[in-house]
């Protein structure tokens, strides 16, 4: 008995000694010990766990507070640095193909075989190559008639709320719309979410649950197994192998591509589909929700936009082509400003080089160190975008520049930049231009018990999320200008 107690005490003492030595090394001997930041963050990943898991998606905000205290480069955990400097974005994300994604951050959704979760640049290029033509402007233009059909379904659904006076949750409608569009493009068939009562059948609740769980899964990889089953229950594999469409689909093209056979398994393409649906749904729906709220909330902006749309679309029953709509200055400015405020993803995006020394100003970053930035830090940079949290479409009119004379588009990074930029940028732009043009040409709305807290980011669950008790973007449909 005494031997057992002594052995246990020895084990505990050894464990404590190991922890003490590990913390001492991380704080004072690690190659990253010279970089500023909180000691707790440098000592353990439990610091990040607390803000993201216990406080639910708050580490992004805590990193911003670190920068305010310690400067533009900070150590945010034992292994990783973060930079807050809008001028460094191009260097980090477009400067070298040797900057690869950080393995630890890629598995948060339980799939590491998708294009977006591929760390190595060479393999990423192989997986992305057959996707690029499908998301080109030319291919999306060919798919546009299908998007117009979805916009008409959205318009019809909104009109029904005016006829019977029901309260409309536009954010749910946008989730249904974006989900139906991306599913049709991926698989060749629609889940018809816009035709469900009050849009209750849509992908968003399931994906939202997965995103909220992903921070925990990042720290405890065993949870990935449960994540895979959660996502797999959202979308079945039939969409990968059965094309019922009159147009080419993403997965029919992948199956016929020159990808190696091991890249065409149902399992890998199924994971690809699950992430593609999530990306095409969440970012577009949130951008629509953000943009529509601000336009309704600001009568002067609404008046100017409606005047432009009425002049361009005298017959409100006709949906103009996106190539024409994108040339309408104020509509295009509203789209860009809405995308800026919705920000795409809200999580940091680490890059790591195993061969090339990375530098930030006078700081030499050790090889193999993940370095990240966050899109919202650039998109909400007060120096680049004055009054950055306000919806100001006018900032995009003409030839917009910063105070230093730089093109404002240089800092428009919601889709990322470089070879890993969001592949769906052309599809998203068409969806946003078509949907916003029809919504504000045909309808007028009144906000119902909805304010800015319902569309402002309060939590980082990979994409921006509002306060947890938000009821969504709720409106009354006051008038219809289409027969």
Automatic annotation (TrEMBL):
Keyword Heme: yes
Transmembrane segments: 6-29
GO MF annotation terms: heme binding; iron ion binding; monooxygenase activity; oxidoreductase activity, acting on paired donors, with incorporation or reduction of molecular oxygen
Cofactor: heme
Residues annotated for heme binding in this entry: 422
Coiled coil: none
Keywords: Heme, Iron, Membrane, Metal-binding, Monooxygenase, Oxidoreductase, Transmembrane, Transmembrane helix
Record bears the keyword Zinc: no
One Pfam family here: p450
PANTHER family (UniProt xref): CYTOCHROME P450, N-ACETYLTRYPTOPHAN 6-HYDROXYLASE IVOC-RELATED
Family: Belongs to the cytochrome P450 family.
Protein name: Cytochrome P450 monooxygenase
């Amino acid at each position: 008995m005494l031997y057992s107690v002594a052995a246990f005490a020895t084990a505990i003492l050894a464990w404590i000694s190991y922890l003490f030595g590990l913390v001492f090394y991380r704080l004072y001997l690690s190659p990253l010990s010279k970089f500023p930041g909180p000691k707790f963050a440098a000592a353990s990943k439990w610091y990040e766990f607390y803000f993201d898991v216990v406080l639910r998606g708050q580490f992004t905000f805590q990193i911003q507070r670190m920068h305010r205290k310690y400067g533009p480069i900070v150590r945010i955990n034992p292994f990783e640095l973060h930079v807050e400097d809008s001028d460094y974005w191009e260097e980090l994300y477009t400067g070298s193909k040797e900057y690869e994604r950080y393995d630890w951050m890629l598995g948060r959704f339980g799939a590491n075989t998708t294009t977006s979760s591929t760390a190595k640049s060479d393999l990423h290029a192989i997986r992305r190559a057959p996707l690029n033509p499908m998301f080109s402007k030319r291919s999306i233009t060919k798919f546009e008639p299908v998007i117009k059909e979805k916009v008409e379904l959205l318009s019809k659904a909104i009109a029904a709320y005016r006829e019977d006076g029901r309260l409309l949750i536009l954010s749910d409608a946008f989730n249904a719309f974006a989900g139906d569009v991306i599913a049709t493009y991926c698989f060749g068939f629609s889940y018809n979410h816009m035709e469900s009562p009050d849009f209750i059948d849509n992908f968003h609740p399931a994906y939202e649950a997965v995103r909220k769980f992903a921070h925990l899964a990042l720290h405890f990889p065993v949870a990935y197994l449960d994540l895979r089953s959660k996502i797999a229950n959202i979308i079945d594999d039939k969409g990968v192998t059965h094309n019922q469409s009159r147009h080419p689909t993403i997965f029919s093209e992948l199956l016929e591509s020159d990808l190696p056979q091991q890249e065409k398994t149902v399992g890998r393409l199924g994971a690809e589909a699950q992430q593609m649906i999530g990306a095409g749904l969440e970012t577009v729906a949130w951008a629509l929700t953000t943009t529509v709220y601000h336009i309704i909330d600001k009568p002067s902006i609404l008046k100017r936009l409606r005047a432009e749309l009425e002049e361009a679309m005298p017959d409100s029953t006709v949906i103009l082509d996106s190539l024409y709509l994108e040339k309408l200055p104020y509509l295009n400015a509203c789209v860009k400003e809405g995308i800026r405020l919705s920000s795409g993803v809200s999580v940091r995006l680490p890059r790591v080089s195993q061969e090339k020394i990375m530098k930030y100003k006078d700081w030499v970053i050790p090889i193999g160190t993940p370095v990240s930035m966050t899109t919202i830090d650039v998109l909400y940079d007060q120096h680049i975008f004055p009054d950055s949290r306000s919806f100001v479409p006018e900032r995009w009119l003409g030839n917009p520049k910063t105070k230093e004379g730089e093109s404002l588009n240089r800092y428009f990074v919601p889709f990322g930049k470089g070879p890993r930029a969001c592949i769906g940028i052309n599809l998203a732009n068409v969806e946003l231009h078509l949907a916003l043009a029809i919504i504000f040409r045909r309808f007028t709305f009144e906000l119902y018990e909805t304010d800015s807290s319902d569309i402002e980011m309060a939590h980082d669950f990979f994409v921006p999320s509002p306060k947890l008790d938000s009821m969504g973007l709720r409106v009354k449909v006051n008038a219809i200008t289409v027969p």
